[in-house]
């Protein structure tokens, strides 16, 4: 197909651009061990990935992206600092949106460097932005690390903070937990009735499922302990509500978040990183005065990012997925590094969408 050949040619040009910026071109197997990805993302990735079984290798998955195999490769063999680029097909099931492609080409650029994370963030964003010049796109940015810092510093139990951290990437569940932990919403009546019983296990039916009686008893004791925990304070909740609602141009967002830091001082280091990143972006000629920043950006689609996040969207085409996305994933290197870790940030482009937008502009 001529169009596919044109998209491949564009992908090759993009990868060459990143190689010229100092990146090493790398490859990744199309079949990836499913166990690693399921461990990272949970079983919900099964709904979006193509999984198959191999008698010798076990469950395998058509690669849903390149970042995980590139991180694995770097943590096993890479020197520091390092820059990588790649181009090739990725595969995502689109059962809820059949009009979107389930196989498409992705081109990426990744940096592993512990010297200056703010500069690395700016380098990735600037290179992606330059590659997209000429297209009518809107850039969106955020920083999941600010919300993570806010949660980790709340005056509540470690168990509650861990539950909130698990659901940062699931906004509805996260909000439901916040409302319950703050007392804004009472616990479910079934839980209240269960905990009111002197011995909830007395009339327990025969065990069904995977949980043992001991595990059920342990869960009930955890619920009893949680019921005695004081609610998250109104002051902290008001500050969290303000933080989650921040959606401004970057300089104004930073000022609003500094106001939030009066009641959530634990976010101050994350705000210092945001400020350093904005300075690095400005030094590269980016117009940070008009750069959109949204504190909640990236929470529904970027589950391994834990800091700076960004995306580029086609203005006037809300039906299209982002043309490019990226962000910082330091925690992923810890998960895959077998005890080692290194700050890392990267971004990916979809040359198929770029090609389609270019054709529309010429039409």
Automatic annotation (TrEMBL):
PROSITE patterns xref list: AA_TRNA_LIGASE_II
Pfam families per the UniProt record, alphabetical: tRNA-synt_His (PF13393)
SUPFAM superfamilies: Class II aaRS and biotin synthetases
UniProt KW Endoplasmic reticulum keyword: no
Cellular component, GO, one term: cytoplasm
GO molecular function annotations of the record: glycosyltransferase activity; histidine-tRNA ligase activity
Domain Aminoacyl-transfer RNA synthetases class-II family profile positions: 10-351
Keyword line: Glycosyltransferase, Transferase
Binding, L-histidine: 65-67, 92, 106, 110, 299, 304-305
Listed GO biological process terms: histidyl-tRNA aminoacylation
InterPro entries in alphabetical order: aa-tRNA-synth_II, aa-tRNA-synth_II/BPL/LPL, HisRS-like_core, HisRS/HisZ
Keyword Transferase found: yes
UniProt subunit comment: Homodimer.
UniProt protein name: Histidine--tRNA ligase
Organism, scientific name: Jhaorihella thermophila
């Amino acid at each position: 197909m001529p169009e596919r050949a044109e998209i491949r040619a564009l992908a090759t040009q993009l990868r060459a651009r990143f190689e010229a910026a100092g990146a090493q071109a790398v490859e990744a197997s199309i079949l990836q061990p499913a166990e690693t990805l399921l461990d990272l993302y949970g079983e919900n990735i099964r709904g979006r990935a193509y999984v198959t079984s191999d008698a010798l290798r076990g469950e395998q998955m058509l690669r849903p992206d390149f970042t995980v195999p590139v991180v694995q490769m770097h943590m096993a063999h890479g020197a520091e600092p390092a820059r990588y680029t790649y181009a090739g097909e990725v595969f995502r099931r689109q059962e809820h949106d059949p009009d979107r492609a389930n196989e498409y080409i992705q081109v990426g650029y990744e940096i592993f460097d512990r010297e200056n994370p703010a500069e690395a963030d700016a380098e990735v964003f600037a290179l992606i932005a330059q590659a997209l010049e000429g297209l009518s796109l809107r850039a969106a940015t955020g920083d999941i690390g600010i919300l993570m810092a806010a949660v980790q510093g709340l005056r509540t139990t470690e168990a509650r903070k861990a539950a909130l951290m698990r659901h940062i990437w699931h906004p509805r569940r996260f909000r439901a937990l916040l409302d319950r932990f703050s007392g804004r919403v009472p616990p479910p009546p079934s839980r209240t009735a269960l905990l009111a019983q002197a011995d909830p296990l007395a009339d327990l039916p025969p065990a069904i499922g995977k949980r043992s009686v001991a595990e059920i008893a342990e869960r009930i004791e955890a619920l009893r302990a949680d019921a005695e925990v004081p609610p998250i304070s109104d002051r902290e909740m008001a500050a969290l509500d303000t933080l989650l609602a921040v959606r401004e141009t970057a300089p104004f967002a930073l000022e609003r978040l500094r106001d939030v830091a009066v009641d959530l001082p634990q976010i101050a280091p994350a705000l210092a990183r945001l400020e350093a990143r904005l300075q690095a972006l400005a030094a590269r000629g980016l117009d940070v005065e008009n750069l959109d920043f949204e504190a909640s950006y990236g929470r529904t689609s970027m589950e391994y990012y834990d800091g700076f996040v960004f995306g580029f969207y086609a203005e006037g085409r809300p039906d299209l997925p982002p043309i490019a996305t990226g962000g910082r994933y330091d925690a992923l290197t810890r998960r895959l590094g077998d005890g080692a870790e290194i700050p890392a940030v990267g971004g990916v482009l979809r040359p198929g969408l770029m090609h389609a937008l270019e054709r529309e502009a010429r039409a």
